[in-house]
Design brief:
By secondary structure, the chain is of the alpha+beta class. Helix content is 14%, strand content 20%. A hairpin with a 2-residue loop joins strand 11 and strand 12. It is rod-shaped and about 120 Å long.
C-alpha cells in the first residue's frame, strides 16, 4: 500500500487510495475522510440503501456503515414507547425496553435494577404495589403478611382469618400455639385462646 501511494504521489490532485476499492482518489471533491481512512465519495455509502454518506449522520457497527435511517431499522423497539433503543437495552418478560420505560403498572416507579413481579394478567408490578394489592393482612396486627428479607412467606389460617406465624398466639397470655398436645389453638367467641384460657372462657 505504501509503495503504491509513493508511486502516485506525483499525480496531480492525488489524495490517496480509497480504503474500499483501493483505487486512486483524484481531486478533493471526489474524496472524503471517515473512520480514520480515505474513501471515494461514491465508495463511502450506506451498506443497505447505498446512498452516499458524505456530510450525513452515519453509524458504524460490526464493521458495517449505515445511514441513520437504516441503522435505526437494525435496532429493536421499546415495547412501551415503540421508539428505537439506541443505547442500553433492558430485557424482561420476553420483551425489550428502554431502562427508563420499564415501570411499575401501578405506581410508575422505574424498575431498572429493582425486583418486580407479575400479576395474573401479566401486569408488571414492583414488590410494594404487588403486596398492597395481593398480600394477606394479619387479623391480629393488621399488617401485611410479606417477606422482609426475600425468604419464603408463611401464613396461618384460623377461623377463616390470616395470621403471621408470630401473631398466632393466645390473645390473653400470648403463649405461642404449637402442635404439642394441649398447646394448640382453642378458638372461642372469635378469639384465639390457649387451652387454659379456653377452659376459663367456657366456664364463665
Amino acid at each position: 500500500m505504501m509503495m503504491r501511494c509513493l508511486e502516485n504521489a506525483d499525480v496531480e490532485d492525488f489524495i490517496g487510495l480509497c480504503a474500499k476499492c483501493k483505487e486512486n482518489i483524484i481531486g478533493h471533491e471526489n474524496g472524503c475522510k471517515a473512520l480514520g481512512a480515505l474513501y471515494h465519495v461514491n465508495c463511502f455509502v450506506c451498506q443497505k440503501c447505498r446512498d452516499p454518506l458524505v456530510k450525513k449522520p452515519f453509524y458504524h457497527t460490526d464493521g458495517l456503515t449505515y445511514c441513520e435511517k437504516d441503522y435505526l431499522d437494525t435496532l429493536e423497539k421499546c415495547d412501551v414507547c415503540e421508539e428505537h433503543i439506541k443505547e442500553r437495552i433492558l430485557r424482561a418478560v420476553d420483551k425489550q425496553y428502554h431502562p427508563e420505560c420499564f415501570k411499575c403498572t401501578d405506581c410508575s416507579n422505574c424498575l431498572d435494577g429493582v425486583p418486580f413481579t407479575l400479576d395474573a394478567t401479566n401486569n408488571v408490578l414492583c414488590v410494594q404495589c404487588y403486596n398492597k394489592k395481593f398480600a394477606y393482612t394479619c387479623a391480629a396486627c393488621s399488617k401485611l403478611i410479606i417477606s422482609e428479607d426475600g425468604a419464603e412467606t408463611y401464613r396461618i389460617i384460623a377461623m377463616d382469618k390470616d395470621f403471621h406465624v408470630a401473631c398466632y398466639k393466645c390473645e390473653v397470655c400470648e403463649a405461642k400455639f404449637t402442635n404439642d398436645e394441649g398447646k394448640g389453638c382453642y378458638p372461642h367467641s372469635d378469639r384465639l385462646l390457649c387451652h387454659t384460657h379456653y377452659k376459663e372462657a367456657v366456664a364463665q
